[in-house]
């Protein structure tokens, strides 16, 4: 993208810088990101990102918000079948696949030091992203809403399990345990079976299921 062009129509430069930052994080991880590199990729002056986003955190917040929307698309594509344990397994698989497909962005999304969670869009975007996730968890636990602490605790337990799986996959901690060469291979060949075994076993062991 370097030198692609030095002038943009109104609004285009902002999007170009977000695309550049996302590309850097996708290829090099958070460690490779800098405002200067984002500007270089977008083909603009080093001061351009600061003009539009003020700080690196401002630009990284835009990348994280985009990541939440993309994760929401992954989760929304999971077909709800009415089998509560099967549905939560499907949501879990989509969550882990997103993390594996977008590892840098996934890690960024949960970095308090790099993302401005006070941004007025953050709460709405993240809550909307996890709506399919919350619905599947509620069906699995036979609860409704998130008003009572018991309902939030149930969702927290499910999310913790799935989020932990995603990080273990990214750090390739499952390879030796299951005898596979790569996390990608494990996700495609083993994870669907593992998830179904986990959630159906929990349901039979006393966790309520609608199936």
Produce a short descriptive summary.
The chain is an all-alpha fold.
Provide an overview of this structure:
With 211 residues, the protein is mostly helical. The protein folds into 2 domains: 12-54, Arc Repressor Mutant, subunit A; 64-204, Tetracycline Repressor, domain 2 (Orthogonal Bundle). 68% of the residues lie in helices and 0% in strands. The protein contains 12 helices and no strands. The chain has helices at 12-28, 35-42, 48-53, 56-76, 84-101, 103-109, 122-129, 131-141, 149-170, 175-178, 183-189, 191-204. α4 (56-76) crosses α6, α4 packs parallel to α7 (122-129) and α5 crosses α6. The N and C termini lie far apart (51 Å). Residues 204-211 have low confidence and may be disordered.
Termini separation: 51 Å
Question: Rg, please?
Answer: 20 Å
Average residue-wise pLDDT: 85
Shape: globular
Unreliable residue runs: 204-211
Structural class: mainly alpha
- SSE series: HHHHHHHHHHHH
InterPro entries: Homeodomain-like_sf (IPR009057), HTH-type_TetR-like_transc_reg (IPR050109), HTH_TetR (IPR001647), MT1864/Rv1816-like_C (IPR025996), Tet_transcr_reg_TetR-rel_C_sf (IPR036271)
Domain HTH tetR-type: 11-71
Protein name: TetR/AcrR family transcriptional regulator
DNA-binding region: 34-53
């Amino acid at each position: 993208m370097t030198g692609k062009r030095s002038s943009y129509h109104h609004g285009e430069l902002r999007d170009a810088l977000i695309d550049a930052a996302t590309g850097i994080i996708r290829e090099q991880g958070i460690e490779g990101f800098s405002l200067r590199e984002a500007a270089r990729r977008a083909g603009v002056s080093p001061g351009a990102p600061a003009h539009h986003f003020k700080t690196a955190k401002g630009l990284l917040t835009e990348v994280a918000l985009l990541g939440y929307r993309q994760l929401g698309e992954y989760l929304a594509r999971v077909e709800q079948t009415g089998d509560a344990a099967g549905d939560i397994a499907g949501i879990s698989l989509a969550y882990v696949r997103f993390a594996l497909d977008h590892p840098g962005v996934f890690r960024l999304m949960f970095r308090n030091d790099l993302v401005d969670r006070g941004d007025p869009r953050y709460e709405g975007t993240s809550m909307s992203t996890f709506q399919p996730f919350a619905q599947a968890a509620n069906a699995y636990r036979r609860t409704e809403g998130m008003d009572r602490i018991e309902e939030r605790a149930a969702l927290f337990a499910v999310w913790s399990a799935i989020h932990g799986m995603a990080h273990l996959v990214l750090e390739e901690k499952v390879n030796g345990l299951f005898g596979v060469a790569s996390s990608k291979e494990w996700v495609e060949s083993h994870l669907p079976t593992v998830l179904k075994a986990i959630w159906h076993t929990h349901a039979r062991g006393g966790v309520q299921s609608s199936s």
